[in-house]
Design goal:
Rossmann fold, 6 helices, 41% helix, three-stranded parallel sheet, 107 residues, alpha/beta, single chain, 3 strands
């Protein structure tokens, strides 16, 4: 089980072309206790930033200028499958710090 402090320490990236929206989301998230929030206004740099920082959550405005329907469709259909590989794996293994045993790798 994930503790409340782990949730509040999640790395979050806000991506929106409207500065007011970015500020509002940042204010709301910090107000409820989130501590690791980054933001940007260029959707095409999200992948680069993700690869560098490995965010736990990305809040992305899919209706920004330049975000065509094909890109939105790809995000929409791929998003539910992100964690599909974790289904059926117990939390004590998913959340274990350090290396897995041979038995854990077998699950």
């Amino acid at each position: 089980m994930i503790s409340p402090s782990e949730i509040l320490n999640a790395k979050i990236l806000i991506v929106d072309d409207q500065g007011a929206n970015v500020s509002l989301l940042d204010h709301i998230l910090r107000g409820v206790g989130y501590t690791s929030i980054a933001s940007m206004m260029d959707p095409y740099k999200v992948c680069e930033l993700y690869n560098k920082n490995h965010y736990d959550l990305i809040l992305l405005d899919l209706k920004m200028p330049g975000m065509d329907q094909d890109f939105r469709d790809k995000i929409y259909f791929a998003s539910p499958m992100y964690d599909i590989g974790k289904i059926g794996i117990p939390d004590n293994i998913l959340l274990k710090p350090g290396s897995f045993s041979a038995d854990e790798w077998g699950i």
